[in-house]
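dumping this here before i forget
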Amino acid sequence: MNWFLDLRILLLGLWLGAACFFSFAVAPSAFAVLSSRELAGSVVNRTLAIVNYSGLLVGLILLASSCFSRRDVNQIKLRLEQGSLLLLTAACTFGQFVIAAKLSDLRGQIGRPIDEVAIDDPLRVAFNDLHGYSVTILLTAMIAAVFAFFLLVRRARS
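structure:
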């Protein structure tokens, strides 16, 4: 196995591990343990920003480094890898700069804890919808990362 490929696999694996840890440990634990949902939401929001920014950075590094792949690499698999990495990068970028920004604006418009807003209030409905989109976008990035990870590992084995 070549060290450059190993490093790429490690980088992608680290991001994927961080995203999984955030999704299945940090976010649920914050809401289970912290004294208020507002405080838990702040912790989750801050941690999600780290996951999104790191996904953007890792995606860009791996996309750029994919250009240095050996010439004998299966070009179809290389394009699939690059497409997956592009999807990872785009999802993290969209999640951070579009969805998170809109959620922040909504929190500012609401001006009080989200749990104090009626469930049928248009701002609460918009907040809940955006939260759902945020979850979907992160899941999309994670699936793209898993796909790229397996492509990289298969290349390393051959």
